[in-house]
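Objective 1.3, modelling of assemblies. Example input:
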Amino acid sequence: MTTKETVLDILESITGSDEVKEVLDMDLYDEGILDSLGTVQLLVELENQLDVTVPVSEFDRSDWGTPQQIIDQVVSLQG
Amino acid sequence: MSQWLSAFPFLTPYEKPFYFVILGILLLPSIFASLKGKRLGGYQAFLTLFFLWMSFGGPHRQQGFALIAYVVWQLLIAASYVRYRQTANRGSWFYLSIFLSLLPMILIKVLPLYTETQPLLYFLGYSYLTFKSVQVIMEIRDGLIKELRLRDYIQFLIFFPTISSGPIDRFRRFTAELHQPPSSEKYVELLGKGIHYIIIGCLYKFIIGYVLGSQLLPIIQDKAVNQGFLFLGSLGYMYTYSFYLFFDFAGYSLFAVGVSYLLGHETPINFNKPFISANIKEFWNRWHMSLSFWFRDYVYMRLMFTLIKKKVFKSRIVASNVGYFALFLIMGVWHGLTWYYIVYGLFHASLICLTDAWIRFKKKHKEKIPSNMATKGLSIFLTFHAVCFSLLIFSGYFDTLLKLFFTYNI
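Predicted structure (C-alpha cells):
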C-alpha cells in the first residue's frame, strides 16, 4: 500500500467519512471533520502505521489542513 | 531631574489615553523604517525598555525588579535545558524544567494564601510570561527549537505591547519576524490594520467597556442584591458583565495586536465574534483564542497523545473527556485559587463533553435531526446563554451573594 492510501485509510477510519478520499483539497478543520481529538488520533496512527513522528507542537493546522497537505507532509517526513 | 522624574507618568500598558500619545510619538521612527521594509532593532529595544520602565518603574519598581529576576530565572532554565537536550532527551529533565519554569507562578499564586502581603515575586503579566516560557521548554523537548539565542528569547518574553495580558504569541513565529521584517507593501497593510484596531479598541475599552463595567454594573448589582430584584437583577448582571468582559478584554487585545502591527509583528488575534458561536467548542475557537489554543496545543493534545498512544483508557471518548477536564481544571486554577474560577473551569469541561456527546448522537441520526436556520439560531441562543452563565460564575457574583446570605443569617 502506498503512503497516500495508508494516510487516506487512517483519515477515513478516524473521521468516519469517505469524502476525505474523494475531495483531497477539502479543509478538514473548517468543515468540522477533524478536531483536536481526531488530530491526536491521526498523529498516533501515523506513528504506528508509517513510523512517522510528528510532535504535537509541530502540527500547524494551516499546513496540515487538507487530505492532500497531510499526504505531502507525511511523504516529505518519510523522505 | 528628580522633579521631572516625579512628574513622569508611570502608567500600566494602555491605562490612559495619554499612554497612546507617548506611544504615537515614540513609535514614529520605527514606523518610518518599517515603511521602507527595515526593522530598527536597536530602536525597538529602546522602545521596549522605555515602555517597560513606564509600567514597571517609579511606584511599581518592586514589580520591575521581580520582572528582571523572572526573566533571568527563565533564561537560566531554558539555556540549560537546550544544552542538555542537544545531547540527551530524558523525560525527568523535561519535567523538572517545566516545574522550575512554573515555579515563580506557583509561588505567586500560593504564597498569598499564607500571608497578607503580595509576594515580592509578583509583577503584572507574570502568568502570561509563564505561558511563553513553558511553551519554549516544550518545543525544545520536541526538537523544534534546537538553538536558543538569548537575545531572541528575551525579546520574545518582554515584548512590551503584549506583556500585561497577551495575546500569547509563539516563539518560532515571533523570532522569524524578528529576523525577517515585513516587506514595505506588507507593512503598509499592517499599519492600516494596526491603526484601525487601536481605534476600535478605544471604542471597546474606554467607551463601551467603561459604561458597562463602571457605570451600569454597580447599579444593577445594587438592584439585585439590595433592592429585592434578585432574579431579574442577576439576569441583567449576567448579560451586562458578559458584554463588559468581552468589550474590556477584546478592547485591550486590539490595542496589543494593533501596537504589535505598528512594530511589524503580527501578534495573533484574541477574539473573533465569540457570541455568535453555535456550540461551546466553536466558542473556544473564538474567545481568548491565544489562551485556548495554547491549552489545546500544549496541554490537551499532548495529554491526549500520551493517553491514546499508551492506551490508558479503552474508550477514546473517556480519554477525551478526561483530557477536557484536565484542561479546564488547569485553566480554572490558572485564573486563581478561588472556588468560582475552578467551578467555571469544571462547568466548561462538562459543557464540552456534553457537546461532544451531542455531536456524536447527531452524526448517528443525521436523517432524523433537522438542520436549518431555526436550529442554528437556537444553537447560538443556547450557547450564548451557557457562556454568559459561565461568565457570571467567573465574575464572583455568586461569591458575593453567598457571603451576603451568610452575614444576614448569622
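Residues 1-52 of chain A form a domain with the Non-ribosomal Peptide Synthetase Peptidyl Carrier Protein; Chain A fold (CATH 1.10.1200.10).
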